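Below is one record:
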Amino acid sequence: WVVDYKTEFSEEDIIWSMYRSNPQRTGYVDCSYQEGVNSGPGLEEVSSIQQNFPNPVLNTTSISYNLKPQDAQNAKIKIFNIIGQTVDVISNLENGKNEISWNAVSSKGQKLTNGIYFYRLESDNHTSAVRKMVIMK
């Protein structure tokens, strides 16, 4: 975290005395713990999806997710191509922390071409953050 503290200028400032040519801006680095989006209480109470592994995908990849019971109705993982078209939908997901294996084949049974794809966890009550994967066969 870089925090731009404005202070009275003095030649005793240790880190650097000027930041962006302004002697009142020190550019001190604040490394203290900050509770944010990816930390703190309540994080485990939200359904989420993790980055796939391995990435880039050669043949198959594993996608981990955490599905809470309140988000389980019609839960699915949707996989999109670079222009936003849905190429595959993985449904029948189980509650809790789970991992699925995906073989880079579309819902039509076609092997997907090399490129960038996106995926997310969706349900009636929740939509997760979008993750990116690369297919290189």
The chain is about 0% helix and 30% strand.
